[in-house]
Write a structure and sequence with these properties.
Length: about 190
């Protein structure tokens, strides 16, 4: 089980559980077609965002495999929600997890996704004792691939046209990092 102490502070960001007060900011992010472009879902309407927010609010602890830790990423000086990060616990037996992130386009290119995702890797490896963490993305999403590479994850697979997403065949690229690689990276 993993129940972090909140908020989690980085050099420039605070990561915390979602609250109902995050609806407007989350809607501003999730309703944008450019945000949903490479995701399984399309731009969300208010009801879909409300449903997603309710799920995020219930996802502040990892109690067992299949759970997701979903955290709001906010700027401490303004309290503005700029994105979110997630850590999925995919297998207890194999000590596996997955990281993900979604950020408001106005805050892209500043390294926030990388900075917040380092926290999620730390929680996975050091807090939950995972052996392996993956990051999966649409093969066209070069910006997301750069985030995973900056995290030190290695590109392991490029699956060609393996999924039908929004009516078209898409490639999936998988990155991964092992616990030993995390330790070496943190020691260096």
């Amino acid at each position: 089980m993993l129940k972090p102490d909140y908020p989690i502070l980085t050099e420039r960001l605070h990561l915390r559980p979602y609250t109902l007060d995050d609806f407007d900011a989350l809607y501003d992010i999730h309703s944008r077609p450019e945000v949903a472009r490479y995701l399984y879902w399309g731009a969300r309407d208010p009801d879909e965002v409300r449903e997603a927010l309710e799920k995020k609010i219930r996802s502040s602890v990892l109690a067992d495999e299949g759970d997701a830790l979903q955290l709001a990423v906010v700027l401490p000086e303004t309290g503005a929600l700029v994105g979110d990060v997630v850590l999925f616990w995919t297998s207890r037996e194999h000590r596996q997890g997955e990281v993900g992130y979604i950020f408001h386009p106005d805050h892209g290119g500043r390294g926030y996704a990388t900075e917040a995702s380092v926290v999620m890797l730390r929680l996975g490896f050091e807090g939950l004792g995972l052996h392996r963490v993956v990051g999966r993305l649409d093969g066209r999403n070069a910006a997301s691939a750069r985030v995973l590479e900056r995290l030190g994850m290695r590109r392991e697979a490029h699956l060609v046209q393996n999924e039908m997403v929004k009516g078209e065949w898409t490639d999936e690229v998988i990155y991964a990092m092992l616990e030993d690689e995390w330790r070496v990276r943190q020691a260096g």
